[in-house]
Fold this sequence. Notes:
By secondary structure, the protein is α/β, with parallel strands linked by helices.
Amino acid sequence: MQVQRAFEARTLAAPLTSFRDIRAQRLADEIGTITKQASLPVALVYPSPYHVGMSSLGFQTIYRELNALPEISAERAFLPEDVPAAKQAREPLCTYESARPVGDFPVVAFSLAYELELAGLVDCLDLAGIPPLARDRADDPHRHPLVVVGGPLTFSNPVPAGPFADLMIMGEAEDLVGVLMQTVLDTSDRGALLQTLAKVPGFYVPSVHGELPPPVAKVPDERLPAHSQIRTPHTELADMFLIEPERGCHRGCTYCVMRRSTNGGMRLVTPEKVLSLIPEDAKRVGLVGAAVTDHPGLPKILSALVAQGRGVGISSLRADRLTDEIVGLLKAGGYRTLTTASDGASERMRDAIARKTHARHLLRAAALTRKHGLRLLKLYMMLGLPGETMDDVDELVGFAKELAREAPKVAFGIAPFVAKRNTPLDRHPFEDMASIEAKLARLRAGVKGQVDIRSTSVRWAWVEYRLAQGGFAAGHAAMEAARGGGSFGHWKRALAHVPEPEALRPEPLPSLRVLPASLAPGEGRSSTLVPD
């Protein structure tokens, strides 16, 4: 779903309202905006529209961390809702806090969540009047800002963003943004700055490291949890205060970037600390994390929030962790739909990807949906996993009918499987698009009138796959496609010049390794691979 939203956000026309009016209205509706002047201003840019960027807990966290530094101020900017109109009007990309053009800032930092946002990054740089390619900025570094990239994408494959970034922050950035800002303050020469940071664990300088990014960084547990700085009604999670009761995951699902081998697995925050950080006036609270329902203190957190009369939301519900108590608390907190995931189409496929969610767990979720008066059970799953056949789809058809007998209403959200770097399923090819479409057609026909089927675009999933498995050449293709208009046809033509993923590299990326939390920047200790 996220892939389609990214493309639609770049192409669908927004109402004809000036940026000045939109900015004024959104700022007036925000709670927690930071307005500050400092010697080193930073433009913090999200390469998707405002409603997507302001739903990002990581983006909000870095906004707060930067503004907490005495000599630093951070202002936000976002991809316009109507990119073609903005380009046609030649409107420069400006920040929200001061309406200052992004191109005037000495540092421009991007948060990338997933692959399709590379097109938004190119569009933002073009709209800011900044040459997108780092090599085109190198000859006159005093004229152009330092372009920094970070975000969730660095946990998987940041290499396609390499042509655009002067440097990247790998992994958890709460501590490293301070290291970066101090180095910028202390170093006037751009080349010397990049050479210095290339030696610091957690920084990836593409001009130095090439296509082999270093390991991701991990902050000490004391730095947790991340939580919202700004609340606004103009997001996908309107007026919701977001906070993470845990970070990471202790499970071993073989398709997932955030599995237990990433940054040491699951790290818990106590219920007391979570509850203490929630503002008294926050009417809705979202608990964010890869494995929130695995938190042993979740019932305590939910009970406290419901007792306070707050609405609640959880980013990830594991079917094998749903209990009568938890679902009852979710209903009391405003839930109308119970959303979880099976991921594999059959028991065989779920076992193959180490999902550990079985049919009995999903049937129990359906029964709990009915028992607590919820309207809908929604399951997310993938088609096109390695080794999957039509027999697995037929099993899903039969199982879907069982679910429909248990729950008031059932919906499936289907996404084609996309192999990600730094997972055990890395390098597995994308299934033939016609084959995936045939499986979707068989599923729809088999459950027609009983289960609502919605799927992400198979074509856009293929684009995501080519970027997820790509290198610098994939980044150049993203620029070509974005500047061409951003349609699937533009992407297909641009990616035709990129080598097939299977031929790209013989070894996994070194960023599968993890920096120990105790490793202070610059100490130079070698990283170790966390065993699966």
